[in-house]
Design goal:
- This protein has two domains: about 15-110 and about 225-275, Rossmann fold (3-Layer(aba) Sandwich); about 110-225, Rossmann fold (3-Layer(aba) Sandwich).
- It has helices spanning about 30-40, 65-80, 90-95, 95-100, 110-120, 135-140, 140-150, 165-170, 175-190, 205-215, 225-240, 255-270; strands at about 20-25, 45-50, 85, 110, 125-130, 155-160, 195-200, 220, 250-255, 275.
- It is of the alpha/beta class and about 280 residues long.
- The chain starts with about 20 loop residues before the first strand and ends in a 5-residue tail after the last strand.
- The strands form two sheets. Strands 4-3-1-2-9-10 form a six-stranded parallel sheet, sandwiched between helices.
- The chain has twelve helices and ten strands.
- The structure holds D-glutamic acid.
- The site of D-glutamic acid has 18 residues, from helix 3.
Length: about 280
């Protein structure tokens, strides 16, 4: 894969170390749930979001392909002068974190550990469910981290591939989505989990439907909030927090900026300016 240099228009200007942006990376639009949580918790931080829309979905691809794409995105963001990188994509966090780390010199946070930590804290019985893409579930990453934190946990994972296109279609709280959720989640309900990790960037947008299907006794874990807590703590420890002024937000995608702009407007409730950076494959 050949790379083009980061065009100056996508790179925030150099300033003090704390003025450098936090990079947030996802396969597409869904990572905006994490971006949104970070920008609400740290409104002064400059952020640059990269959606690899040329290669989405990652969830049906091989770990090798996801690793290759993720590495290129990490290198691109590194060249943009980021101070830390958040891999908002669960699939990339599950199968490609080591390769992302090789692509950048800055600290990297994925979403698996924050989500797993929240689930372990929330679960009374230790019976924890995980829903995610096929790649995330078959990687076993959440199961490994959850049982690492709580060895006696009983973990059940189910892939829900139709949820991603339903979210992108805007059917967040719709009868069709609910029927799909009932079918996917039936084994989870029978399994009696008391905590369910929404292990995909898109799923927090289906929280109402999933809550109805799973019933009141099940805590739903959205790793976005906990990831924002973790990146905030990391920057504080490194002395790199930006604490004054309003942060600048940049959005870059690898294809289809118009579609991204439309969906992003709906997802984060404001108009965004989106630039395109294509990778040559
Ligand atoms: N961002 C992906 C994730 O969180 C979902 C979409 C995709 O398959 O690329 O796993």
């Amino acid at each position: 894969m050949k790379r083009r240099l980061c065009p100056p228009t996508t790179c925030p200007p150099a300033g003090g170390a704390s003025d450098r942006p936090i990079g947030v990376f996802d396969s597409g639009i869904g990572g905006l749930t994490v971006f949104d949580a970070i920008s609400r918790r740290m409104p002064s931080e400059n952020l640059v979001y990269f959606g690899d829309t040329a290669h989405v979905p990652y969830g049906t691809k091989s770990p090798e392909a996801v690793g290759r794409y993720s590495f290129e995105v990490a290198r691109f963001l590194d060249r943009c002068g980021i101070k830390a990188l958040v891999v908002a994509c669960n699939t990339a966090s599950a199968v490609a974190l080591p390769r992302v780390r090789r692509g950048t010199r800055v600290p990297v946070i994925g979403v698996i550990l924050p989500g797993a930590k929240s689930a372990v804290e929330a679960s009374r019985s230790g019976s924890i469910g995980i829903i995610g893409t096929e790649a995330t579930i078959s990687s076993g990453a959440y199961t490994r981290v959850v049982t690492g934190l709580r060895p006696k946990a009983r973990v059940v994972g189910i892939a829900c591939p139709l949820f991603v296109p339903l979210v992108e279609e805007g059917w967040w709280d719709d009868a069709v989505t609910e029927a799909v959720a009932r079918r996917y989640l039936a084994p989870m309900r029978l399994g009696g989990v008391d905590t369910l990790i929404l292990g995909c960037t898109h799923y927090p947008l289906l929280k109402d439907v999933v809550a109805r299907v799973m019933g009141k006794g099940v805590a739903l874990i959205d790793s976005a909030e906990q990831t924002a807590v973790e990146i905030c703590g990391l920057l504080r420890r490194m002395g790199l927090e930006r604490t004054s002024g309003r942060g600048r937000h940049r959005f870059v995608v690898s294809d289809g900026p118009e579609r991204f702009r439309r969906l992003a407007g709906r997802l984060i409730g404001k108009e965004v300016d989106v630039r395109c950076h294509r990778f040559d494959l």
